[in-house]
DNA sequence: CTGAAAGCGCTTACAG
DNA sequence: CTGAAAGCGCTTACAG
């Protein structure tokens, strides 16, 4: 392979001069620069980034941890993150943890090896326990899409999930619903809290018994949880599902139970995924500012890398919005 | 940061010895090894992978190009690829091209810089034109999920898309349909050819006029194309959509046109995505061996990296299968 | 089994 | 504005 030395010889200069024209850090006489550039072109020289990284200590690569890439939410996080990185000339090292703590731990441990300049961890599933591994790391770390309590040492760019739940609750309240049940993933306690707060504002209580846990965010789990909820609370006029896919399952279960939506039963969901738009009726859901979140998180990381300034003030929470569609209606 | 030299001093040996215990390539006396390992633990030494890469010429990183990560198909490719890489101790550098030729070109060009050991390119959208950039590359390249003609110089692991179309056609034929229309993405000519072949086997012709192009694989485009098809061919009893999401749009358009599925109109799709399972009626669709494909492609790459053997025989095509669900029925 | 030397291809001060 | 030197942290033959 052709090295900087080869280019230098061809151009009749030393390799430091070639380095100078490439980096632009030191001015080079135009005639010399022209000779160097010509030599680069003739030889088809491409700098060896590994060697550069060893010398500079920077790989221009950022690590991204996501639980999975096969949900619209994380797919968007990945693509938005990549766009911002690309704009800054950085590359993306991807790791999907699959909500597998051991896998996450192993990969986290492998990151100490100087191969990335910064790390973005999106989503807390299975990771929280292993975060201490990152405490002595020498590159900046930012957390995003974080729904549980995060260690104070890391900046976190996330959504106000509690408010998301609140919006869902307020929406049902505004439609006159008083008797409701909730289908929730175990990780979604913030959403449930917010939902409850909306009812509490009107002096209404959503009892713990009205919350039905769905072990995982899947269509099947949604059907099961909805079935249980509809059986336990036959008089409920509305359902809040903490995730769209759960709500799609609920739609199915409601159909099976002979309840028509939204006339006999309103369903409000959370996350506003494409599945919710495809569902019939289309789902009323709380939309997440996914791309803004990813953009802001990577932006924070870029500034941390480039400025080497002390950590910025803890960023604020991004606000979700409710999108009313066909699955909710005034209490009949 | 602590280097190999620090470990060596602490253990009272030279850094070569430390390197030897780490690599295991050269036997080290047990007592020495114990001292070295102790020093590593005490100092919390982690090898600098960049330095190792410069010395060895290998980064243990594989690049993966996908058009996007936000379809179930490519999400699966990414996750499966990552699993296999992980098992081999390799990392994943991800690049989503977004079907943007210029973006693909730029990233492809950036790959010559010694930062990856191999490259997997999944999906041909926007890339075919830029493949010559890879001709003089010094790392192995494998193509997968390739639906158009690929340059002969690269091994390609892909699906028999023509056969997929054939399966869809044969299915409709077996159900007695003779008068059909097709909704196709421009890139899906193989699928359409196969579909036609199934009809041709029975001496039936699917005229070019029966093929309606959908500019992009989206719900909206599916609606438009289906609308056009149903208007132009009111007597068609079945539709073949070359992609599930197109078919979901077709379902909607059929409903709007007062056609009930599958009684008045059968719809067979291709790709068997989660959207097809969520649709009502559920979609009959041709399923792709996605994970097998990704696994085989990365496997090929791993062997190419590690064996340095000449390129293997061109791998065969993987076979799709038809999954019959609710959207197709015997011609009424 | 262990150590001394050279080298991977770059960058970064530092002289001139 | 250009060149000589040292160094980034590792590995790889090669002696002993």
TrEMBL record, chains A, B:
SMART domains: HTH_LACI. Pfam families: LacI (PF00356), Peripla_BP_3 (PF13377). Keywords: DNA-binding, Transcription, Transcription regulation. Signal peptide: none annotated. Residues 2-56 form the HTH lacI-type domain. The keyword DNA repair does not apply. One of its GO terms (molecular function) is DNA-binding transcription factor activity. PROSITE patterns: HTH_CROC1, HTH_LACI_1, HTH_LACI_2. Residues 3-46 form the HTH cro/C1-type domain. PANTHER family: HTH-TYPE TRANSCRIPTIONAL REGULATOR GALS, LACI-RELATED TRANSCRIPTIONAL REPRESSOR. This is Transcriptional regulator, LacI family. It comes from Streptomyces venezuelae (strain ATCC 10712 / CBS 650.69 / DSM 40230 / JCM 4526 / NBRC 13096 / PD 04745). The lineage of its organism: Bacteria, Bacillati, Actinomycetota, Actinomycetes, Kitasatosporales.
